[in-house]
Amino acid sequence: MADGSLSDMTTIAVTTWSLEQTAPTDLLPAAVPEGDVRVVRSEVPSPEFSRFLYASVGGDIRWTDRLGWTYARWLEHLDRPGVETWVAYDRGTPAGYVELESQDDGVVEIVYFGLLPGFRGRRIGGHLLSYGTARAWDLAERWPGVKPTTRVWLHTCSKDGEHAMDNYRRRGFRLFDTKVEEEPEAATPGPWPGAFPA
């Protein structure tokens, strides 16, 4: 009889790839998409807005690690020096975002990157990743006391969108590590039931 323990859960093998750039010249920018697409920094720490972006972008690809965060934890994270959220807008509507985090010794991680499902496949992602990566390289210019960037890195996994790895490589990111781990299989949370068309 199942007792609800981890051993009773179904697991899936998840491959995680880590990629990096080690010089600003590594960045290979994508073409700017047609239309009124803008990328703007969200300068006021807003747990409500950041949680909306996180749940809306990651809901169909099983981003779950921050869903249980409290308001206070979101605010503490967003208010840290060197943490930035850059949001792509298509005709004034949020289309996706990039979250940057300054780490030790001039390292900046692209912690989250993605588009809301309705904006995928419209060439916004390549532009947003290009713009966000460029902001990772010049992050220290906006944060006194943060060391100049010497390395930008990120990770993606087999649960992410099917075009994620290709987009990263086309922007000049190079693979430096691969790991495969078993994870509990979780339902796609979505921002709310029925938000994603089948």
Quick summary:
The protein is an alpha+beta fold.
Percent range of helical residues: 10-25%
* Major β-sheet profile: 7 strands, mixed
Number of distinct beta strands: 7
How much of the sequence lies in strands comes to: 25-35%
Number of helices: 4
Distance between the termini: 34 Å
Dominant shape: globular
Order of strands, main sheet, comes to 2-3-4-5-6-1-7
Return the average pLDDT rounded to an integer. Answer: 91
Protein name: GNAT family N-acetyltransferase
InterPro entries: Acyl_CoA_acyltransferase (IPR016181), GNAT_dom (IPR000182)
Organism: Streptomyces prasinosporus
Domain N-acetyltransferase: 47-198
Overview of the structural elements:
- The chain is α+β, with helices and mostly antiparallel strands and 198 residues long.
- The protein has helices at 47-58, 71-78, 124-137, 164-170; strands at 11-21, 37-41, 83-90, 93-102, 107-115, 151-157, 174-184.
- A 7-stranded mixed sheet has the order 2-3-4-5-6-1-7, with helices on both faces.
